[in-house]
Amino acid sequence: MTQEELTLNIEKALDEIRPFLNSDGGDISLVSIEDEKHVKVRLQGACTSCSLSISTMKAGVETTIKKYAPQIETVENIA
What we know:
Layout: H1 3-23, E1 26-34, E2 38-45, H2 53-68, E3 74-77
Parallel strand pairs: 2-3
Antiparallel strand pairs: 1-2
Helix pairs in contact: 1-2
């Protein structure tokens, strides 16, 4: 998978997650992809102060990104 395809797949994953985050007043954006294995995202809006953001990252964001791009090893929120 090329870097461009990887980026597109991760954006597709974020597009799948975004409506759920938007419904709670939040959003998410892709910050970077490092070594084609590590993704950095930024939770925005209500998600920045939500006590469940860690759960959202693991159960929602990371799982969905890995569905679209199985080679991803880590997903990290950059504040």
